[in-house]
Each structure stands twice: as C-alpha cells, then as structure tokens.
Amino acid sequence: MHKFMTLSAMLLALTAGSAQAHFQMLYTPESALSQGATIPLKAVFTHPFADEHTMDMAKPEAFYVVHKGKQTDLLETLKPIEWSGNANKGAAFSTDYKARAMGDHLFVLTPAPYYEANEDAYIQQITKAMVNVAGLPSDWDSELGLKAEIVPLTKPYATWAGSTFTGIVKSQGKAVPYAEVEIEYLNTPIDLEQNKTGSLIFKAPQESFVTLVIKADSHGVFTFGIPKAGWWGFAALGVGPDTEFKGKELSQDAVIWVQAKEMMKE
C-alpha cells in the first residue's frame, strides 16, 4: 500500500478486503536453466498473492536485457496480450527471448506510469528479473544506476526455500536508508499458453499476511527469510527521484523478482 494513499482510499481498500499492493510482474517459469533455451516472458501488472485485480498496462517506456555487461534493447519485441486474472482481464505484454549464452540474463522493465484511481496518483515500478544459463554467474549483482533499483546481494536465481534473500535499495546509485519494502508471493499457477492465472494456492490467515512489509537499514540493506519455494516479489516504495506525473503524485518504485527452490534428493 503506497504511502500517499488517502485515509478514504485506505478505508475503501480495507472494506473491499484488499491491501491493494501493486506489483509489476515479469514472469518466466524458470530462473536457472541447465542449458540455453528460448524462454517466454510475461509482463503483467497485478496483485500476485490475492489476484483480485489485474491492472491495464500501457506500452512500457523501456525494456532491455543485460548480459556480460552488454545491454540489448527488447522493447519492440513486446507484443500486447490480454491477461486473465481470477477477478478480471487486463492489458499486458509478452515476448520470447533466446537465452542461449552461458551466464546471467538481467531483464529490466520500465513501465509507463499507471494511474490508480483509488489513490488519485500514479505508480511506476522499475522491475528487474534474472535468468541464469548453465550456472555461470556474470551480471546478477550489477548495479545499473536506475532511478529506482534493488541491487541483489544474494543470487536471485540460486536461493533455497528456507534461506534468505538480501538486497540494497538504491536510487540513481545512492543507497536509500530505511526504505519500505513490500513483499508478496506469486500465489497462483501461471498458464503461459492461455495467458492467465490459476486458482489461489494459499490462504492468508489475516490481511497483514497478504503483503509483508519490512524496512531496510540505515545503509538501504534489507534481508528477508523465504519460507516457501516459488516466485517472490520485492517492491521498494517511492524511492525514485520522480514524485509527480501529469500534475499528480507519483510513486516511483523498485521491484525485483526472486525464485526460491526446494532442496532435492539425488
């Protein structure tokens, strides 16, 4: 829930039984590949745990991949799709990417600001996701100097369920002390062929468990214990320098996605 949310909007959200935590999703099934492959990527603006509303995305401002320090523009590869959530349908985007070379493929998506009517404000979530090929590390901890950025201190694609993920919140290369970080679990299976989510997997015992909230320390560093295998989204709220868009408040957030895995027997 964003800091600029008005009291009336907060009451409306609570009445509706939703914390209204927005997450820009950049989904692919697997973040750690044994060998190169062509992978699907889905860009969806949603509420990953409750899946009670899918927001319409406009064409993103930027979308690219970084591999061994080289940046490749992917914006024109994005194709508009209609995404079906459990409650409604929304405009989203899809592409296929040839993740053939060994190493890390670091994807960065800068969506167009989204107008949230309940908050009478805009949200822009600059999002990072990574796919590794064949175990060779290359770019996973790269700092890109984004307006809003979470730089991982733990490999986002090599995390066991039950271990921890650590990151540092930055804005244009500078650490953001005491940044507020929202965390949500992707709580539905994803149907890549039909562009839709499946039924909810887990039920929250109380509203506070839908969107978890932690604070970074005085150096912008945070750590979270990951209790379950799957995809986890981390969103540092309002850390970017841009605070206004079209005459209204803007929350410029940093998002990163982390995939945790269960330990397997031989």
Briefly summarize what is shown:
The protein is mainly β and 266 residues long. The chain has one helix spanning 7-15; strands spanning 23-27, 32-33, 37-46, 62-67, 70-73, 79-84, 89-99, 103-110, 114-116, 121-133, 149-152, 159-160, 164-171, 174-175, 180-185, 190-191, 196-197, 212-215, 221-225, 230-236, 244-245, 248-261.
Characterization of the model:
The protein has 266 residues and is mainly beta. The protein contains one helix and 22 strands. Strands 2, 4, 5, 8, 9, 10, 12, 15, 18, 20, 21 and 22 form a twelve-stranded mixed β-sheet that branches. A four-stranded antiparallel β-sheet has the order 1-3-7-6, with no helix packed on it. Strands 11, 13, 14 and 19 form a four-stranded antiparallel β-sheet that branches. The radius of gyration is 17 Å and the shape is globular. 42% of the residues are buried. Mean pLDDT is 93; it is low at 4-19.
Helix-strand blueprint:
Blueprint: H1 7-15, E1 23-27, E2 32-33, E3 37-46, E4 62-67, E5 70-73, E6 79-84, E7 89-99, E8 103-110, E9 114-116, E10 121-133, E11 149-152, E12 159-160, E13 164-171, E14 174-175, E15 180-185, E16 190-191, E17 196-197, E18 212-215, E19 221-225, E20 230-236, E21 244-245, E22 248-261
Parallel strand pairs: 2-10, 10-22, 12-22
Antiparallel strand pairs: 1-3, 3-7, 4-5, 4-8, 6-7, 8-10, 9-10, 11-13, 13-14, 13-19, 15-18, 15-20, 16-17, 20-22, 21-22
